[in-house]
């Protein structure tokens, strides 16, 4: 039987030991970019602060321009009931007065009818 593992896999290579992995290159690049940006900020603080301020204003303006989302059904029903309750609350004294007037009118009409029926 032949060996299923190729010989290249089993041997060690020195080319990996000499070349840094790609992650190390990325870390080194990030460190150099960070150092360069710190140097630029220290040399030009006013333009950097003004740029950050302008960026913040722009983002704030864009985020504040969002549309008001539609109210859900429960919120709309709650507002409708609150409006109806406040209107009814204002009308209650008038309704009490009309009720008293109607009650007195009914009593007067019943007495008038009673007096007419006595004559018959």
Question: Number of helical runs?
Answer: 5
* N-to-C order of helices and strands: HHHHH
Number of domains: 2
Query: Average pLDDT, to the nearest integer?
Result: 79
The number of strands is 0
**Which of globular, elongated, flat, extended, rod-shaped describes the shape?**
rod-shaped
Structural class: mainly alpha
Distance between the termini: 133 Å
* Beta-strand percentage range: under 5%
Major sheet details: none
Which runs of at least 5 residues are low in confidence (pLDDT < 50)?
none
Question: What portion of residues is helical?
Answer: over 70%
Radius of gyration: 44 Å
Describe the structure.
The mean pLDDT is 79. 81% of the residues lie in helices and 0% in strands. The chain folds into two domains: 23-68; 71-119, no CATH class. The protein is mostly helical. The protein is built from five helices and no strands.
Essential attributes:
2 domains, mainly alpha, single chain, 120 residues, 81% helix, 5 helices
Summarize the structure.
This protein has 120 residues and is an all-alpha fold.
Topology at a glance:
Elements: H1 7-10, H2 15-18, H3 22-43, H4 45-64, H5 73-119
